[in-house]
Design goal:
It is a single chain. The protein is α+β, with helices and mostly antiparallel strands. The chain folds into two domains: 8-83, ACT domain (Alpha-Beta Plaits), CATH 3.30.70; 89-161, ACT-like. Chain A, domain 2 (Alpha-Beta Plaits), CATH 3.30.70.1150. 37% of the residues lie in helices and 36% in strands. Strands 5, 6, 7, 8 and 9 form a five-stranded antiparallel sheet that branches.
Amino acid sequence: MEKDTTTKLYTFLIYSENVPGLLSQITAVFTRRQVNIESLNVCASSTPGAHKYTVTANCDEHMAKMLTVQIEKRIEVLQAHYYTDDQLFINETALFKLSTPVMLKNPDVGRMIRFHNARIIEVNSTYAVVEITGITNDILSLFDALKTLGCVLQFVRSGRICITKSRVEHLDEYLAVRETKRLKQEKK
């Protein structure tokens, strides 16, 4: 049986205790295997006491499995999984600082903003700030269109945030099983 070596973007969802230094340990797993992290987001999760790391990286599935196994070996990591885009609901946010004089001279700028369902959140005589929320391709499509029109002064994009399409929260199931085992041990 041949190993699949097709490289694609994987999203790794990692749940951990809130421990200083864990982020560097997680990123070191990718670095040691020479896998570049494309985006990274860390926040508290919906599970009390657990933090959620959302990491994206281009690799093949074999490498995604290997990275997940290595990450789960960290004592503070509760659980790690990797996903493809079709298994997730995904969102990002981006901000653009655009030249107001260019916007006023070229009506295509406004058309591109409306076409991409972005919104203008600030305008002054020097610049306008535009915000868009959506999937990566939509954000980059607007960036490419505005860059072609010569009006982009600054651009910044958040890391990916996502939730799984699964009906269950894998972490909650894992923690429930772990708690049941702990209670059984206490009874002995």
